[in-house]
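Submission sheet (multi-component)
Chains listed below:
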Amino acid sequence: MRAVMQAAIVGGGVIGGGWAARFLLNGWTVRVYDPDPESQRKINEVLDNARRSLPSLYDTSMPPEGELIFCETIKQAVEGAHFIQESVPERLSVKVDVFAEIQQHAPDTAVIASSTSGFKPSELSEGALRPEQILVCHPFNPVYLLPLVEIVPSSQTSEAIKQRSKELMTQIGMYPLMVRKEIDGHINDRLQEALWREALWLVNDGVATTEEIDDSVRFGCGLRWAQMGTFQTFWLAGGEGGMRHFLAQFGPSLKWPWTKLMDVPDLTDELIDTISDQCDDQANGKTPREMERIRDDNLVGMIRALKKNNWGAGETMNQHDQRMRSEPADLSQLVQTSHRQVPQSWTDYNGHMNETHYLEVFSVATDEFMQFIGAGPDYIASGLSYFTVETHIRHLDEVKAGEQIKVMTQVLDGAGKKLHLFHRLETEDGRVAATGEHMLIHVSLETRAACPPDESVGKTLRDIASAHVSLGKPDGSGRAIGVKG
Amino acid sequence: MRAVMQAAIVGGGVIGGGWAARFLLNGWTVRVYDPDPESQRKINEVLDNARRSLPSLYDTSMPPEGELIFCETIKQAVEGAHFIQESVPERLSVKVDVFAEIQQHAPDTAVIASSTSGFKPSELSEGALRPEQILVCHPFNPVYLLPLVEIVPSSQTSEAIKQRSKELMTQIGMYPLMVRKEIDGHINDRLQEALWREALWLVNDGVATTEEIDDSVRFGCGLRWAQMGTFQTFWLAGGEGGMRHFLAQFGPSLKWPWTKLMDVPDLTDELIDTISDQCDDQANGKTPREMERIRDDNLVGMIRALKKNNWGAGETMNQHDQRMRSEPADLSQLVQTSHRQVPQSWTDYNGHMNETHYLEVFSVATDEFMQFIGAGPDYIASGLSYFTVETHIRHLDEVKAGEQIKVMTQVLDGAGKKLHLFHRLETEDGRVAATGEHMLIHVSLETRAACPPDESVGKTLRDIASAHVSLGKPDGSGRAIGVKG
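Outcome: structure written.
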């Protein structure tokens, strides 16, 4: 148990709201200051989106949601805070004033960070009371899902604050990218801006519509960039010769007229109309709210796919799963082997969790149980494992997307090569929605044949099995389909 | 059955090989001409990658692989071809000569397309025998996975050839983007080039390493771009105000120094060394071959995630699944309800297909069976469906990634509200690797309670069930776990 951490969000809106959601869902107390009377509504909307998507990224339950407090003053928001995130409008004088007020009341050990895209930390901390406390933590929308945060210190930012911001960003599941030198637009916005300016030219010159440009990205390079970025993609294009070969081959094209970026198009009324109208058409009648949910479901799905390969954003999520994981105190009782939220993508045309994911949950629960008895990744790497030979699932009730579910596991037999498990899938309100009965056999991964577990695993398992006898034979175990048991 | 289609690949290498693989795996005969003595090896390497990944995108079996023929001359390659794809080195005079030779021997109804990034179709077809036959079909690496193909006609390209190229590209599972105006770099390479030039500046100026830049892309904007592109992403950032609001807010930043794209860095030896060395470090000892497989597995995983939401590249794959789907001729015999290749991502730490995906295969097979009996999407939309209440899986043998598997389905009971199915999961070499026994109950999606199916579905099901009685009670049905049956 660690002490409750406290974040102050100064400036709500989409970005501030995204920050609030990320801190809250990671168990922090969040105090928000925003003079906009609409800010409570806006933040709650962002929170709704975050609640349905962020926990879906993980295969572990997130900590209990923290407390959200709306404050009347900056003072109330920042007193006692460990992390203060400023997301007020992009005007330097406004930001400088806000920082001055924050520093009057904030602990001097707190990180004070700005979400700014437009200003460098040295500009923000000019004339500040304690410039060493200030840096930029630049997030990406949706802040509650995208792991990237660019941490940009000024030359005055202290080492302690840099380290602390990196640690705390990691603690809330983000991927902190420490930026070496401050520069306008930091790193990522510069790349986006370059692409954006070229895209504006293409529309301006009637070469393509906004939809055609978006399609060229999402059916092509976007899928590459989501996992490897631009350098690694081109490194691969260089084959055995790597980047050197690629640069020799494509270096000359730097002199070709492949972008119009020597110039920037004028945002005339006509161009604004063209772009805005085309973008509205693209949405095809969907509201921003609907599109946000589609975006979030896609992000969750793609990041979950990357988790499988422990790659890129997926690796970040796997690491956060490990941080949130806990071992059971007492294996002699029913063992909690899973606790998680049901992702949107797990539902099917019947509007409930698809049968496949019941087995996914049970399978992951079995893996977790194996870890508890000492048959985890190291054991498997040593060449021993369990294979499932038989599974019996009873669906007793429906489960919907967004529900919290857990699995309680009973050992029915653990003698010799056998591992006979009985999982109960329970909902938050205590319904048993399904049971999974599984027979596993211990095997050698070399011979692919059955063999006894090692002594330690065997003993642990026998001990649990004999303790679990006292829990009784579970209702519905040992049954065949279509036969009342 | 449609006639076998024939493609000619002129110029092998990574791009030509990718084209060859895509045509072959979609059942086309492919004739390759490339004077490079290494070309057979190179194309076979690309084919190996494609065979393990492209079929994994689909939930339907692809057609039997076509025949691959290496030719000694352009004449041999292009005679009788329906589609001719040129991927020779990026030198205009070479390309023009190749097109002249192709047109001497090719049918005048064939599409003659170039993979060029660097040249406009009008340049390629200048002085050609039949300029109306020539256009650009610009693909993206890996050609066998990424759906985007930019189709760029010249002013002389005929309507028939434009239409034909669009149809044929769709037939091999691609997403044809018809480009309205020819322009250097077409659409997507211009966007990539803009981002690339900015990225080179960041390395050149010591702001970030290649890895940091790639991280800023793959943990941030890349995940957005993979699904929505740049305009739709920013449209969303505009909230209720849409793009007009976004442009009003961020229009001014077009005048800010957020990119260095008024200029291009010199590719000095020093900059080349820096970039190449950093990229090699990023690979962390992995070979290009290993990285290709990681990339492909990530692409397959992300695109499969997008399939679930029927979005972007995922929608393209779903449409291709529909094109490849076939209905069974005779429901009175065992019904083939699935035929597919096992994706890499379906394997687990035991090096075989994870138990979860056995149920996924069975679940999809059940859906397919429901479609066969008239309880498909339209029926479900009308408010009626089947819910699984009980499942019994026996794992009899291991299945590895890349194996072709099929499911043969027997109806054990179809009376009243019951649907009692028995699936056999068979491998290509005839092993029964698993069986799945499933009890489903017909329900009203409104009341969520059991109810009889409609008359037509009920009758079809009873007919199949009574025909299937003659197939006998399957081995392993009606069994409980741990009990010999």
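Remark: The two ends of chain A are 44 Å apart (CA to CA).
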